[in-house]
Amino acid sequence: MLQTPVFHSGGEDLNPILPHLAEIGLSLVVFGILFFALRKFVVPKFEEVFAERTDAIEGGLKAAETKQAEADKRLAELEKQLGEARHEAARIREEAREQGAQIVSELREQGREESTRIVEHGKAQIEAERQQAVTQLRAEVGTLATALAGRIVGEALEDDDRANRVVDRFLADLETLETARAAADPNDGGR
């Protein structure tokens, strides 16, 4: 079996697990110096950086909250403006619809007036043409009636006054006959 060597220094046995008192003292001094140096120089820098980061983060959060509040306010304003614009567009559409209906109504009325005017003008023109035709027919009938009456009577009706009296009597008889026929049959329309 192997034995572990035991070192003796001055007659006492040293335990390899326990450190020497000099090492413990030296370790405590080095630890104290290191602790003091860290506490004096490094920890304040860490705290300063930590404080700066905290301030930067808090400032960023506050700025973000401010910007979010501004964005929410702006969004509310835009939504309000959009609502007003929609309301205005609806009002304009309604006005346009009303104006369109009014224009259509006016155009219809103008169309009715124009058609009435055209019909009245047509009636007047037809009446003028009818009067002209009646005048021409009277002249032709008068000439024919005078010639026919002259043949029937056996004398010439060259006297204008006499010829006019004969023609007027003949036309009056025709009109009386036509009026009597129209009164007898109102559905016939005077035919």
Keyphrases for this structure?
191 residues, mainly alpha, two-stranded antiparallel ribbon, 2 helices
Q: Can I get a quick summary?
A:
The protein is 83% helix and 2% strand.
Topology:
Blueprint (H helix, E strand, L loop, with lengths): L7 E2 L2 E2 L7 H133 L6 H25 L7
Antiparallel strand pairs: 1-2
Helix pairs in contact: 1-2
Return Rg in Å: 66 Å
Poorly predicted sequence stretches spanning 5 or more consecutive residues: none
Helix content: over 70%
The helix-and-strand class reads mainly alpha
Q: Determine the mean pLDDT.
A: 83
What is the count of DSSP helices, taking H or I runs of 4+ residues?
A: 2
What distance lies between the first and last C-alpha atoms, to the nearest angstrom?
164 Å
Shape: rod-shaped
- Read across the widest sheet, the strand sequence of neighbours is 1-2
Biggest sheet, in brief?
2 strands, antiparallel
Number of strands: 2
Can you describe what's shown?
The protein is an all-alpha fold and 191 residues long. 83% of the residues lie in helices and 2% in strands. It contains two helices and two strands; from the N terminus they run ββαα. The protein has helices at 21-153, 160-184; strands spanning 8-9, 12-13. The chain has a two-stranded antiparallel ribbon. Helix 1 packs across helix 2 (160-184). The radius of gyration is 66 Å and the shape is rod-shaped. The mean pLDDT is 83.
